[in-house]
Amino acid sequence: MRKRTRRQLRGWGAVAAMAAAVWVAGNWAIVWPVLVTVLAAAVLGTAAWGLVRAHRHAVDGERTWRAQEEAKARELSMAEVDALSWQDFEKYVADLCRRDGCTRVVVSGKSGDLGADVVGYLADGRKLVIQAKKYAPERSVSSPDMQKFVGTARPEHGADVALYVTTCRAFTRAALDLAVRQNIVALHRDLLGSWVKGAHLETLIPLNGSGGGARRPPA
């Protein structure tokens, strides 16, 4: 039954194809403009899709190139920072704060400062407390490191904005999660490179941990 059905279907299909061919031959004057239009539309559609894909590829390539160039520029700007001692690094971070309008900026420059390497006030009056760690680029800031800063930034120093800035490339996942939960701004090497290149501190604060705090009237 199945074979017979298939044969019947093939037969009816052949008959339909022959009928269609006869009809097309008899009405060629009507059919050929339609065929030409359909083929032209198909060609134009294919060409347009190719142009769109090429444009997207070019845009993606340019974005990738710009990101790579920005990363290279950040690394070049970090070369001088990498050459600093940890004491000079703290002073350099303080200078960046002053550049961005912070006032009453003080550098501890000694051990036993309970995590407050740099202290100052933002332009809107919020107290800023910074832990500045000069680490090798390949190192990561660990959760215990972040816990120590969390334990002192606000309880000991009354920080409105607590900033952990480091020259290494990353915070561990646990350290970063803790920073977000405890409202600590975590600036790794790439964000520090952007700061060094001229990004304003106020634009970096919301990027990695909210870092907010009650606003105070400027002193």
Please give a handful of descriptors for the protein shown.
219 residues, alpha/beta, two-stranded parallel sheet, disordered C terminus
What is this entry, summarized?
By secondary structure, the protein is an alpha/beta fold. The protein is built from seven helices and seven strands.
Structure in words:
The protein is of the alpha/beta class. 58% of the residues lie in helices and 14% in strands. It has helices at residues 2-26, 28-82, 86-99, 143-153, 173-181, 189-197, 201-204; strands at residues 103-107, 118-121, 127-133, 140-141, 161-166, 170-171, 184-187. It has a 5-stranded mixed beta sheet with strand order 1-2-3-5-7, sandwiched between helices. A two-stranded parallel sheet has the order 4-6. Helix 4 (143-153) packs parallel to helix 5. It is elongated and about 100 Å long. It starts with a helix and ends in a 15-residue tail after the last helix. 27% of the residues are buried. The model is unreliable at 210-219 (pLDDT under 50).
